[in-house]
Amino acid sequence: MVKGIVHYEVGNQVDIFLLVKSASKGIASNGKPFLTLILQDQSGEIEAKLWDATPEDETSYAAQNIVKILGDVNSYRGKNQLKIRTIRPATDLDGVQLSDFLTVAPIKKDVMADKINQYIFDMKNSNIQRITRHLLKKHQHSFFEYPAATKNHHEFISGLAYHVVSMLDLAKSLATLYPSLDTDLLYSGIILHDLGKVTELSGPVSTSYTIEGNLLGHISIMVNEIGQAAKELGIEGEEITVLQHIVLSHHGKAEWGSPKPPMIKEAEILHYIDNLDAKMNMLDRALERVKPGEFSDRVFALDNRSFYKPTFQN
Amino acid sequence: MVKGIVHYEVGNQVDIFLLVKSASKGIASNGKPFLTLILQDQSGEIEAKLWDATPEDETSYAAQNIVKILGDVNSYRGKNQLKIRTIRPATDLDGVQLSDFLTVAPIKKDVMADKINQYIFDMKNSNIQRITRHLLKKHQHSFFEYPAATKNHHEFISGLAYHVVSMLDLAKSLATLYPSLDTDLLYSGIILHDLGKVTELSGPVSTSYTIEGNLLGHISIMVNEIGQAAKELGIEGEEITVLQHIVLSHHGKAEWGSPKPPMIKEAEILHYIDNLDAKMNMLDRALERVKPGEFSDRVFALDNRSFYKPTFQN
Amino acid sequence: MVKGIVHYEVGNQVDIFLLVKSASKGIASNGKPFLTLILQDQSGEIEAKLWDATPEDETSYAAQNIVKILGDVNSYRGKNQLKIRTIRPATDLDGVQLSDFLTVAPIKKDVMADKINQYIFDMKNSNIQRITRHLLKKHQHSFFEYPAATKNHHEFISGLAYHVVSMLDLAKSLATLYPSLDTDLLYSGIILHDLGKVTELSGPVSTSYTIEGNLLGHISIMVNEIGQAAKELGIEGEEITVLQHIVLSHHGKAEWGSPKPPMIKEAEILHYIDNLDAKMNMLDRALERVKPGEFSDRVFALDNRSFYKPTFQN
Amino acid sequence: MVKGIVHYEVGNQVDIFLLVKSASKGIASNGKPFLTLILQDQSGEIEAKLWDATPEDETSYAAQNIVKILGDVNSYRGKNQLKIRTIRPATDLDGVQLSDFLTVAPIKKDVMADKINQYIFDMKNSNIQRITRHLLKKHQHSFFEYPAATKNHHEFISGLAYHVVSMLDLAKSLATLYPSLDTDLLYSGIILHDLGKVTELSGPVSTSYTIEGNLLGHISIMVNEIGQAAKELGIEGEEITVLQHIVLSHHGKAEWGSPKPPMIKEAEILHYIDNLDAKMNMLDRALERVKPGEFSDRVFALDNRSFYKPTFQN
Amino acid sequence: MVKGIVHYEVGNQVDIFLLVKSASKGIASNGKPFLTLILQDQSGEIEAKLWDATPEDETSYAAQNIVKILGDVNSYRGKNQLKIRTIRPATDLDGVQLSDFLTVAPIKKDVMADKINQYIFDMKNSNIQRITRHLLKKHQHSFFEYPAATKNHHEFISGLAYHVVSMLDLAKSLATLYPSLDTDLLYSGIILHDLGKVTELSGPVSTSYTIEGNLLGHISIMVNEIGQAAKELGIEGEEITVLQHIVLSHHGKAEWGSPKPPMIKEAEILHYIDNLDAKMNMLDRALERVKPGEFSDRVFALDNRSFYKPTFQN
Amino acid sequence: MVKGIVHYEVGNQVDIFLLVKSASKGIASNGKPFLTLILQDQSGEIEAKLWDATPEDETSYAAQNIVKILGDVNSYRGKNQLKIRTIRPATDLDGVQLSDFLTVAPIKKDVMADKINQYIFDMKNSNIQRITRHLLKKHQHSFFEYPAATKNHHEFISGLAYHVVSMLDLAKSLATLYPSLDTDLLYSGIILHDLGKVTELSGPVSTSYTIEGNLLGHISIMVNEIGQAAKELGIEGEEITVLQHIVLSHHGKAEWGSPKPPMIKEAEILHYIDNLDAKMNMLDRALERVKPGEFSDRVFALDNRSFYKPTFQN
Q1: Is D109 within 8 Å of chain A by CB?
Q2: Closest CA to C267 of C208, C185, C164, C197
Q3: Residue F16's closest CA among F104, F82, F76, F93?
Q4: Is E264 within 8 Å of F307 (Cβ atoms)?
Q5: Within 10 A of E47 (CB to CB), how many other CB atoms are there?
Q6: Which tens digit of pLDDT belongs to each residue from C19-46?
Q7: F-chain residues within 8 Å CB-CB of E239?
Q8: Start and end of every HD domain (chains A, B, C, D, E, F) (predicted)?
Q9: Is the pLDDT of residue E6 over 90?
Q10: Which 8-state DSSP code applies to residue D253?
Q11: Which of A163, A241, A276, A311 to mutate to test binding with chain C, by most C CBs within 10 Å of its CB?
């Protein structure tokens, strides 16, 4: 198998296919245009400059194109950069496709869908069950494609569903240890808590924020949808308000984006489960390239801390 | 005219009608029950103890009853307290009624309704106009009865409508000075911004928070209602999202309860207008009993500051 | 079975045995001494005044004595107070003992000891295993008697061991879901993290802080003990520093008392497990006296929030 | 009319006059000196590098000189940069002058002076009136030349006077809606509140802080001047202290530079008016280059927010 | 010598002279007026209730009167209270006077004046010397009478001068160890830094804030006076601005009341010296009644900490 | 004497010996390797690029080598950079040595050792004296070599001992002015407070943090060592806990790294002395290159402030 682009070291020569994640045009000091390309594969990304870019180059190497590059890995301001010797667009003959270059959740969509449906099937409160099933069905396609965030954690294809599945399994373990938990509320809250992201974010690839995402945020979007789903399904009862509250409060504090803090036990616990799964995901990724006896890079979303891998671990 | 209860001084004897705002039972050190009464008139409130209370007293002096009291104003821990000599329930013959004891906005409901309708009538964007009119009509009755808050500012009958009318007039002045403001958005935002309070709060008298108010808050409640109104009226277009955003962001910052900060000019300005009118209301009330050369009591919602009335003002 | 003291309502007469938690002397306005007694049973505590207290009363009703009281439940400043009609010290004939009045963990000490020993037995790294076993053995007696805190959570007999057992079970569940966790480190960290409390706190009953507890705190105390244990056992290796770090960092942030934030994955996760178990304990207790459709009292250690029990839960 | 320099796009060729705002010398990797020029016109500014700079170039292209440049707009690190092909100093024959390149308030100085004098003329309290007139007269020349700040808002020629005039008009509107306001205090406070900036700042062009400005700040400077003006005019009375307080407190909070928070109603309201006018100015400028459906750049002084221009606005 | 009032314990009988610090009237539950007296001697203060107070009592026992009391020390809500058996106003025959009941600095005024004059005499920069001497002379009488604060530290007669003398001595020691310090600036800054308190505070006894003190604060008051002194003395030069800056910045941070932080070395060091002397004064007082092995009361101005006196100290 | 590297200006040619502080390899845009060298002498440091670096260059110019360079001082992004014309490793014939390039404390090690020993000799409490002497002796060699920090203050050879000596002298002055201070505790606390840095830091040159330093910090390291020293010396008594507390609390607040705030008078004062000496050191260095009438660079550890040197100082 081919080595990922982030695993090359300064001085190495590379000869690989990469996906253009973004391309922006500049004009060099010699007056000629050049392109700054961000190139990616499943291992991560690297920057490259394409000097003396022609108008055709701008088209051929626009975002979402796959390219074949021969070049060298340099160091520029402490970060690796790819110096291009030759570049060409990939062709059908190359046998490469978009999905070869994208990171994907480690569990298949079908398997995840089955697991989640089982959790819904097991719910006893039919109001909660119907609303959950209705909203999941409505956004089913996007839900199993979208990442859970644009960066920090679960920012890969199907990351949203994968995060939800991990949280459900964690919730189930907790409910065994602390049997006072209402699993209907907890499972439904987990399935719905980030579902508004399918409206807040632009899509699974080159993900950005939509206008509605910027102005309202995934929390308010989903709180609204729960209200409308209840209306469409003709459901009345406190379950609606409580589910809306759980989604509304799942960031835990006003300054983290929840206008109301958790005031229901399951809302408070969901906030913890969300955090724990996200942090575990970040920690695993921060440490996966670190050797025993070394510190990781600083992780911004973990208060900018470095983590140490003890020498007696391997 | 009768002097208000808060204007009596320690040592004064009083012989007046008062409304029971709340009553709670205790047992005294002699083993007999007593009632702690909070009594109010339009000037404010005072506490009183009714010793050796009979079961009939508990009924006669429950909240919302009007009573006639002969007593003395004492001081207890720095606050005035009413020492009851004789007390009796008011009767029809006394010719007193609930509204005599409640503070009411200084403008009549009809006049306020006319003013607000004129602002709606003047709107040019029909999407904004229709949603605003629809939601105001839906909650019309409560809107003109409710206070704007349970304490701090505009906490009187019709306080909500009065606050909105003051803000609309202020917005109109501003729009003259800064003509780039979109008055449709601004007026609609002002009318809707606190409308969720008719669901968040229990009613115009002895106001408390409803369950829905506690769990969701007036901001999320109204954001949802705008979405549903649009659906019912068959309105589509960015106006919906923008109005939702204005309501969502009107507290200005996440830590003050707005999950998104203002990102539209009119949203930012509405936040200022809201603040300015509320603060002006608080300042006027804090200073109304202060003589030139004196400091007011501390005002909790104004960072617990005291305000000074200069000697050259009168 | 006898009803707990906190379950009586204002106006009820009581005739029960209670433990004197604390007693302090005052002088009444008639010039005579009186005692303020805090009385407790397994359900909680109540205050009582013993007027005209004789010197014998001071001895008979000092802290840690059991008394028989006939009296009435009054309300004073919003809290229940016990008005004493008759009081007498309990005698051997009454057949009551100290442990009848103390709250105890829901699992027996033997069972907890077996569970913890099994976790230690399963450790694979012998350095970690030996230090953990050595320190637990050293403080064994106190560890199974002490509460986990003086208030907020697990503040009952054997609360410390019970908290540790719950955390171990939670850690085991997590390690199944996230197999990258080093269970030796995690289990050892959990067993040791609060062990310094047996030095920081005065004992299982009427718990207060020792001088050493005040000046150094349980975290520094245990970090020191790990170092000394290693010296005594002749153990060298990074495990010592890493275990010290896990204990040192388990409060998560400098402002919460950890001079170093977690920099090892297991340290970070231990902090989460600690929090989750403590919060779950607080939530369960806050909600146990609440009926569906009601809010709990405010819980200081949960940001002073109230929690709502939905009407559809029972 | 010539297009402003900030309106050119990457790849455009320019052939225009610009004012050198600042020039600093460096030595290139070929060992030869070069100049980094910040060039401006009324639309804004752009950076340019002049390579192989001679000693004559250093003189010709020093700050405050006007130059004629033929060049190309490049992109460097996400910001536009001007690549110079040819450059020459402007001559008298070119018919360009300093004021052509500077942004100026939209109202003429004479008109502003008349307005402000009218506000002073209308004051009824002669102590307040005399002090205000005295201090304005003393700093008249600078007051109508200086900007209100070095950046963020009203940072253009006559920006200070323009900000004051806008605030006065806003205060007048408010006083109509809230008649309890003391307009003498409010108008005087507005005229004086930032007058210390004529001492704090170096002048209307290439504005920086003076030593006195750095060490004392415009607030303390003006508080002192009010005291001295009163002494010179032989005025005694509480008006002096109150005006000093209004200036002292106009930043609203200690952490924003006011050692005392507002404790007079007009001081509190002045703080709001100041804020509202400054924010409106920032918002208008942030949005003036934004098309409907787009977000503005982030505005640092508005908590680094972007603002959205709705698609239905134009 | 007579034992101070704070050294009596609950149950003790007292028969002593005390100064009435404040007296306020209330009405008891029997409808009769009573007085709440705060009584003090040099050791501290105690509260007492005078029941059934006559109008003559109100006059005889007003603030600043000396009284003879026979009574008992009770405990009320954890604080000592004096139960009055008999009370009478002191007469000339009693031979007691106001100063017997007030705490006074441990050094005589004359001695302090000589020390400070010597520090001024030794200054080499005549501008600094003249301004310092002028301002000290202007406020000489009050300066040697006033306390340094109304509470927390040096809140006794001549406390201001005593604090200044201690700071000067400390500054002299520092200047020996760190010879780069400019002693003229440092000594002058110390003498002037709190001199505005003679205007901010009402006087040496029953000290409160003046209107000017409330609205401007001692810092701004003294910054103004330095400016006026320079004008009167015809002094020009940067010394004026620098001395104003030192006074302005001596609280160290904006949130502590200094609109500018120290930007001169001596200003920074003065802030430290001020702090160190104030904290030392608070620590000594907090610990003076504590026995070895005990913790002091919490000290509000020291972050509400308790301090421990080690058992090996005596 | 040769001019220090930081005193050269842009455009100057240099021909001097420098120590390589660090060297890191990159690959240039021409595909060839280059070295980024940080070069230092006693005056400070400068960056240089060595283009087309051979493998031999990597060895010859690794950290800790001394080099002879002919080059020019350029400016790059506002900082000086050294453009290398010729470079060669120093040889024995050059007569230069490591210590020529390192900053050293202004007092000799012997003199400092004598002073500290005298302070220990003068202690009266033998427990405190023995522990202090034991720990100083144990780390004697490193203690007199290490810096007090990696940056900010006293970051030079023997900086740690120099900081301790200055603090001791300052403590002695204070103890004269405030005789209630326990000098045994204070002197011992000062000698031990930062002694853990000899374990936390890697060494006197190219200082970085050790693993143990990162995971535990110098405070916890020394608290542990005090406990072990007591055990080894067979000392029991509260002195141990108190000394541990003084070291533990010397950063003053939890958020600054002290899990317990000072709760002993001498602990509080030590925190002030530490701060005062560190700040004085930073201030002197910030101002030493500043001319009268100028502001210094911003000092990060002094809240990023600039300091002004008055024109009347020289």
Answers
A1: no
A2: C185
A3: F82
A4: yes
A5: 15
A6: 998 888 876 656 677 889 999 888 888 9
A7: 310, 312
A8: 163-279
A9: no
A10: S
A11: A276
